[in-house]
Amino acid sequence: MDLVIRNASLPDGRHGIDIAINNGRIAEVAPALQAKGAREIDAEGDLVAPPFVDAHFHMDATLSYGLPRVNQSGTLLEGIALWGELKPQLTQEALVERALQYCDWAVARGLLAIRSHVDVCDDRLLAVEALLDVKRRVAPYLDLQLVAFPQDGVLRSPTALTNLKRAIAMGVDVVGGIPHFERTMADGAESVRVLCEFAAEKGLRVDMHCDESDDPLSRHIETLAYHTQRLGLQGRVAGSHLTSMHSMDNYYVSKLLPLIREAGVAAIANPLINITLQGRHDTYPKRRGMTRVPEMLAHGIDVAFGHDCVMDPWYSLGSGDMLEVAHMGLHVAQMTGQDAMRACFKAVTETPAKILGLDGYGLQPGCHADLVLLGAGDPVEAIRLRAARTLVLRRGQVVAESPRAAARLVLPGRPQQVDFRLSRRAGLAMKNA
Ligand code: FE2
After folding, report:
1. Which residues participate in catalysis according to the annotation?
2. How many angstroms separate the alpha carbon of residue 318 from the centre of ligand 1?
3. Torsion of CA 150, 151, 153, 154, to 10 degrees
């Protein structure tokens, strides 16, 4: 074997597991493997997980913080205005440079697959070209999936539909949309029909910014589920944000959730961004504005958490850390039960991998040896500590390393080292399993 990782804990609660890796793939996963590795790593009981996956991001805008100026109010509207000011000044070189830098951050955080929307409303399709170039360049270490995103509305902006089709022809993977931003509810519904039919014709996946508002009557998710089912697109469609569902009437939602489930439409919430951008017209009480995550999970709907923005016109924080995303999602959705907390870890790993349709993702023999060793004993501890990614493997090769979170104390009569892992305490790891 090229590599054997000894004594790992796994996200499903197993402990004391060895993982043998050969030719970039997982060969065996079992306790006390006989196989010897050319290299051996002792996980010391820490968690080994498949890599983090971000189902919703905007790589054309990332790390542009301060260009051409900073968003002073921190609101969505100033963010959109700022993006409008920045767009004409974008150059391909600068876009590529920022995206590559973000991918460096991602790899260091164990984030090895990202679905990024790319704005197609600039007739030059500069960002599309830049991100297709980035996709090729990062392919050895990161899966970048691109969504053709008509930020200004596919019907509202005169050239958006043509540009979206051009972007797909150039190699963009997924059909995007933004129905709640079209001029009328009817136009929004029409945009969903047009885009779903185009995706069905081309055999593509769909991921729309859908109902990203506090308007309880923004119900484009219903239309998205309808056309998904009508066109046989089950399992290939995602609704991103779905924040209006937070404010919808409970009776209507009781009809809506089974329809989403029946259509096999997945949901992608973006907790960091939803909690900061939604509810801005409220005084008090202020709505949280994140979609109904636990209720959708209870209905068997796949729900992923996305990062959405990092250091861009809409959000001045973030560092590519999907554990920070899961941490915020857990709090906003009040998912503090034991199973619910583990579901939040799944929402930044397995579930987005399924939504992206990633091949060979997971911990079973035969899967790619893409793995993250975390400075935590289980998924809940990983979220609590936003644990260090002590080792990140891509196809069995180490691509990033970080020191474990620890501190040295200088206090008389107290230990010199502080280790924040309670999983070290005998028995706790078993309980958390
Ligand atoms: Fe977005």
Report:
1. 212
2. 15
3. 0
Distance 208 CA to ligand 1 centre (A): 9
Which ranges of the chain have pLDDT less than 70? Answer: 426-433
State pLDDT tens for residues 68-96.
899 898 887 888 888 889 888 889 999 99
Distance 304 CA to ligand 1 centre (A): 13
Cα–Cα separations (whole angstroms), residue 156 to 124, 134, 187, 230, 357: 18, 29, 8, 25, 30
* 3-class state of residue 389 by DSSP: strand
Query: What residue ranges do the domains of the chain occupy?
Result: 3-50+362-423, 52-356
Q: Which two tokens stand for residue 8?
A: 């790992």
H-only helix segments in 139-219: 160-170, 185-202
Burial class from Cβ neighbours inside 10 Å (0-12, 13-18, 19+) for residue 426 reads exposed
The CATH H-level (homologous superfamily) assignment of domain 3-50+362-423 is Urease, subunit C, domain 1 (2.30.40.10)
Assign a CATH topology to domain 52-356.
Answer: TIM Barrel (3.20.20)
d(CA 55, CA 401): 24
396 CA to middle of ligand 1, Å? 32
User: How far apart are alpha carbons 172 and 229 in whole angstroms?
Assistant: 24
